[in-house]
Amino acid sequence: MNATGIPWGPVAFVGLVGLFWLSLGFLAWVYVGYPLFMAALARFRPRPVRLDHSWHPTVSVLIPARDEASVLGAKLESVLAQGWPRERLQIVVVDDGSRDRTADVVRRFADRGVELVELRQSLGKAAALNRGVAYTHGEILVLTDARQPLVPGALAALVAPFGDLYVGAVSGELALPGADSAAVAAGRAEPLRGEAGAGLGLYRKIDDRVRRWEAASGSSVGVTGALWALRRSLWTPLVPGTILDDLVEPLLVVRQGQRVVVAPGARAIDAAAPGGSREFVRRVRTLAGNLQLLRMLPWARSWRENPIWFRLVSHKLLRLVAPAGLVALFVSNLLLIWQNWFYTSALAGQIVFYGLAMMQPPQSLVARSAVASWRPVLRLARVAHSFTMLHVAAAVAVWRFIEGREGVLWREAAPVSAWATGSEATHTFWPPQAAGHETRVGVDETQTQWPPRERETREMATDKIGTSAAPEQRGAAS
Description:
Blueprint: H1 10-44, E1 59-65, H2 69-80, E2 89-96, H3 102-107, E3 114-119, H4 125-133, E4 140-144, H5 154-159, E5 167-175, H6 181-185, H7 200-216, E6 227-231, H8 245-255, E7 259-269, H9 276-296, H10 309-335, H11 341-359, H12 363-368, H13 375-403, H14 417-421, E8 427-430, E9 438-439, E10 463-464, H15 471-477
Helix pairs in contact: 1-7, 1-10, 9-13, 10-13, 11-13
């Protein structure tokens, strides 16, 4: 033991101090510095979007669904109630091999113009989107999940930014259940609360705010997958098995020279985030998708080729390294504990924080706490738990990706090996107008921007569809 209190000598002491401050600085940039930098950029170097609420282009709303019979009816009602000119609105639902009555729910809306593409076997969300896009013909393609109904005016708010010719994609946002409609439309409704309100709700609130700042100063990194839109001419067919379609497609839009912006008034209502293992598995899958993206899009790793490389790295990729930063911070702090009061206090703070994370109090306990002074502590415990589990999920995602087990399908869908082997599932188009008519749907995936080793020349199988005209012909007729 020497004067520094470190048994390995002054070199080790300098190394530990450097590791501590580098780790602290790295984490501070990821969670504080980058958001503040984006806020400053949006404030002092804004790029306003020209909104055009008078423009009513043809819009195709595409809803991929798997086992969503219980919620799909409400979703379709919310889309039909948007007030968009009916002759300029197409609604297509892709049933990705559902095991419930999802297709029957859609058929009940056939007389109201809702179209169904029914896949006999589940191919995964990316493949379902590819199939669905082949049947759309609108100028604007709206992609939205089945679980979240739209608030009044969401569609108009989502389309208005396309009046700016530099805008290629627009992201909506999620609002909490029961939010006031006027507040939601004005973008004032609070994000999700509920069971995850003090934890993941806070995380999503911060993430949404950062995305708004990114959009206000240029382009956001990714979109809200539950509700977003793009110009159909910019759509690039997804590689089957793509995890984060709501990150891959926006990046491809930006690479084509268009902006990705946010429409705060375009909101969908979501229930509280699932808790426990379901949320953990979802988070692992999402974080693994960030790594999958780097493998699928090599150009995204290059600051020369990726127009928003700095934002992608700071917003998405550095968060995958954050668990290593937290471990390095704790270990270096532990070895420096006796140096001075600062290191002692810092270690005590970390121990208290992780101790609170292990409490994991339910939100109901926070709300019902009889002692008001305990509520802030319980809320902090939920924030600490969510923060810690997010980083555990990031570590698991990196490990699974290294092992090649990142997972590719939504929910419990069957493997997408059918795409690789050519044994593709047949699907039908509803409503039938000319039963038995056969056509070949051409989604040319050889013209995408995927690297050669990821790109395979595929030809869609002959599809049995119940319509008297191909999708392109129906679009021209409308």
